[in-house]
Design brief:
Length: 116
């Protein structure tokens, strides 16, 4: 019974996505001119090469920020129910924190946290 429900949900999702894409394709206006293909930023036409390389450090710094931001998101609900969760939950969160601390130590040792 539960397996049938899962199959029906998956098939319904597939049908709805395909239907939405088909309707959008049929109703969307079709016009193309060379100006649409040009890069556009802030209303100012681009001059010269529009491909600019960014330092990978910016992306690494952002990923590290997200990692520790998500850590907070996971720890807050646990802290709310910490008294009722039991020893298993305490050990699980301890393991979670150890993995994150090892990740921080690795990033620190590699110099990823230094803004150059």
């Amino acid at each position: 019974m539960f397996f049938t429900f899962i199959i029906v949900v998956i098939l319904t999702a597939i049908v709805l996505v395909v239907a939405a894409m088909t309707i959008a394709k049929l109703l969307a206006p079709r016009s193309f001119n060379p100006q649409k293909g040009e890069p556009y930023e802030c209303g100012i036409p681009t001059r010269g090469q529009s491909w600019v390389q960014f330092k990978a450090g910016y992306y690494l710094f952002a990923i590290l920020f997200l990692m520790f931001d998500i850590e907070t998101v996971f720890l807050f609900p646990w802290a709310v129910v910490a008294g009722r969760a039991g020893v298993y939950a305490l050990v699980s969160v301890g393991f979670f924190l150890v993995v994150l601390i090892l990740g921080l130590a690795y990033a620190w040792r590699k110099g990823a946290l230094e803004w150059k």
